[in-house]
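Agenda item 2: 5'-O-[(L-methionyl)-sulphamoyl]adenosine complex prediction
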Amino acid sequence: MVKIAKKGKKKFYITTAIDYVNAKPHLGHAYEKILADIIARWHRFIDEDVFFLTGTDENAQKNEQAAKKAGIETKKFVDKNAQLFVQLCKKLNISNDDFIRTTEERHIKASQLIFKKLFDKGEIYKGHYEGLYCYGCENYITEKDLVDGKCSMHDKEPEWIKEEAYFFKMSKYTKKIIKFLEKKNSVLPEGRRKEMFNRVKEEGLKDLCVSRSNLNWGVKVPFDEKHRIYVWIDALSNYVTALGYPSDKKFKKFWPADCHLIGKDINWFHSVIWPAILIASDIEPPKTVFVHGFVNIKGSKMSKSTGLVVDPIELVEKYGLDSVRYFFARNIPFGYDGDFSYESLIERYNGELADKLGNLVSRVVGLAEKYLKSKIKKKKSDEKLFKNLKLDLIKKQMENYEINKALTTIFEFIDFCNNYIQEKKPWELTKTNMEEFENIIYNSLDAIRIIALLLHAFIPNASDRILTQLNLKTEKTIDNCKPGLLKETKLNKKEILFAKIEDGK
Ligand code: MSP
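Presented output:
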């Protein structure tokens, strides 16, 4: 998996959160990976050198607790469950360049090195800690986080714990973190940045407990083996350990991260704690932490106890990968909470993928098959048609992480192309003006070629299938989205891209 960036290209390093392996992957995990994949693929499409990292967070106590419950030795349990996340990535056609597991030697060594470096610099010291600890959060919590005596996030009573522990001098970094959070794109969307900024401004930063004693699971503090590194410090460091920190070429090339994509529940860890650790370790903080919302099911939080769960693997098996990827990208405004329901997935699929995109391709390829024996001659580009292709806008929207808007813009062009065919009625020209018929077909196919390229980041399978119908092995780059690049060709046989889903769920 070693990847060395080509010289001269802009680099783009994107990460997802690393997932706990206490249970099998859920829809939220799939959502985050799909959106990260769309961004990664898009950045490759605009000719950047991308490094895309995902992985699993295996040293957490909740993994150990789940292993105990299952009656399986912890390492065996995490090995088995980590594979479910690897398989999920395959099933979702995620183009990650690496998959880090925090029980890997490369990670353990490097995360210990970071801890030791901070201790040697006097940024970490030994003391005592006591407080309310929530096992769900893997974190100490405060009275403010409680509702009826229970952690508001996990609906569980916290325990009072006192222990000898190491502390990170985070308080020292209040000003630097404020400065980091003052930068416009440090945290996106803007509301999430303000939330963090206001909280640090109002409360300041306290020193942070960064070790736990009396644990049997987790990375050991290298110079004091009675202690384990607090799982969040260990977990966050995956973003640099996967690049081979401190010495590897990859680290020098790809750090700082251009985008840490995470969910709203872990914003504080990424936008405050992680930058503080990095600054203390003399490492640049990330350029952007992008905070996405939560996927709910029919308006409510996913939950096993209420039966509100959808298995992402089963979903893909039933409805196909492109429909799931399209749905997540199109239906949920990126950065905000959104809802999943079978009904809206089917509606998007039938109404947009089948009726708009599928219909356009099948109509044009069908006409070419019927009247031209699929032989396409090169013609002059129709400026009026391509005026409606808003490439710069799509680029801008993707740069601003407006994924759903970019898709809308692409689909507006698809609508325009469908109308173009509808208005020009090329089938009526086959007896009177074959020249004009060929012009319309050529331009429509050229537009379809560009649409397939633009959609590659979002729905890679459909994009490939369209390009195959056009008999094209073109490189998927934005440079190839110029009109007129379709050469003389013989199309392959027409194929239904998206068969309509007729039954309800
Ligand atoms: N292990 C930590 C992250 C450590 S990152 C250094 C963790 N793991 S998690 O498995 O609980 O969550 C992984 C990612 O999935 C997080 O970004 C989280 O916000 C996201 N999601 C969890 N539930 C979600 C939804 N219901 N919807 C969308 N994403 C959500 O946190």
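Discussion summary: Residues 17-20, 28-29, 31-32, 57, 235-236, 238, 262-263, 265-266, 294-295, 302 surround 5'-O-[(L-methionyl)-sulphamoyl]adenosine (CB under 6 Å).
Owner for follow-up: CH.
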